[in-house]
Specification:
This protein is an alpha/beta fold. It is 40% helix and 17% strand. It has one domain. The protein has 8 helices and 9 strands. β6 (175-187) and β7 form a beta hairpin.
């Protein structure tokens, strides 16, 4: 049944992509506002097909320019966040060449950056700033890599400079920097513990295809997305201080999400369903 469900999901998403691709390409080419909303529609369809239930806490900021600063665990973060609101992502340049995913990222109007090339930091920040001043909500995965889902890695501060560039390139008095936490909390209604949370997380040393199949085979994973109050970034703000504050907020919200779904020690955990990947040895 899992294979049939995955095949059905792939078929529906391929058909949806083929239908929307020409319109999205035209919308990007001519700068139509529709270019922001078609990817949102795609993610609204993709999440339930992938068995991903999105639980939102807090409220996305309505003000613009807006940069969402989030932790990062998996490719699933993209469809989970994309399900919530129209937005675009900032991704490492390698993603552009990934089969399938690269094309979808380009249709999402992703900005690709070379994080290790410090010589291009200012140029890349300006590209992000242009999108911010145009009214696009941009998502920065500030850890610069994926974690195992149990903790938040230290934030890298370089691309927070995009907020400074946006202020210089627009009439805005401030940029809203909104911390966002992503936490995978349940599978088949059972709390995900520390050893099973990598079911959803995709650390960089794990091969994508087996992880993708394992994740989709579950068919029932809850992800909690929490929005903190936006941090007001003005011309006098220090990007490193703002990055540290955003990191602390994301760390706090993720800890609350995970703690809120931990099984009490005195209550035995129910056995997972035999077909579930949770039944595998956690080692």
């Amino acid at each position: 049944m899992a294979r049939l469900r995955i095949a059905f999901m792939v078929l529906v998403l391929v058909l949806l992509t083929l239908v929307t691709l020409p319109l999205q390409a035209l919308a990007i080419r001519f700068g139509w506002p529709l270019a922001r909303f078609l990817p949102w529609l795609w993610h609204r369809v993709a999440c339930p097909l992938a068995g991903l239930r999105v639980i939102v806490k807090g409220t996305p900021a309505a003000s613009r320019p807006l940069m969402l600063v989030a932790n990062h665990q998996s490719w699933a973060d993209i469809i989970a966040l994309g399900h919530v609101m129209p937005l675009s992502f900032i991704a490492k340049s390698e993603v552009r060449e990934w089969p399938g995913f690269g094309m979808l990222a380009r249709l999402q109007r992703t900005i690709f950056v070379e994080r290790d090339d410090r010589r291009r930091t200012a140029e890349q920040a300006h590209a992000i700033a242009d999108r911010l001043t145009a009214g696009d909500a941009m998502v920065l995965f500030a850890e610069g890599t994926t974690s195992d889902g149990n903790e938040v890695l230290p934030f890298k501060t370089a691309l927070f400079g995009a907020a400074q560039a946006a202020l210089r390139r627009s009439d805005a008095d401030a940029v809203a920097i909104q911390p966002v936490s992503i936490a995978y909390v349940r599978a088949h209604g059972l709390p995900l513990g520390r050893y099973h949370r990598p079911l959803a997380a995709w650390p960089g040393d794990v091969t994508l295809a087996p992880h993708l199949i394992r994740f989709l085979s579950e068919g029932a994973i809850d992800v909690e997305i929490s929005f903190a109050a936006p941090i007001v970034f003005t011309g006098d703000s220090d990007r490193k201080a703002v990055a540290r504050k955003a990191e602390a907020e994301v760390r706090r919200m993720m800890a609350e999400s995970l703690a809120g779904h931990m099984q009490p020690a005195e209550e035995p955990r129910a056995a997972p369903e035999p077909h579930s990947a949770l039944a595998s040895d956690p080692t």
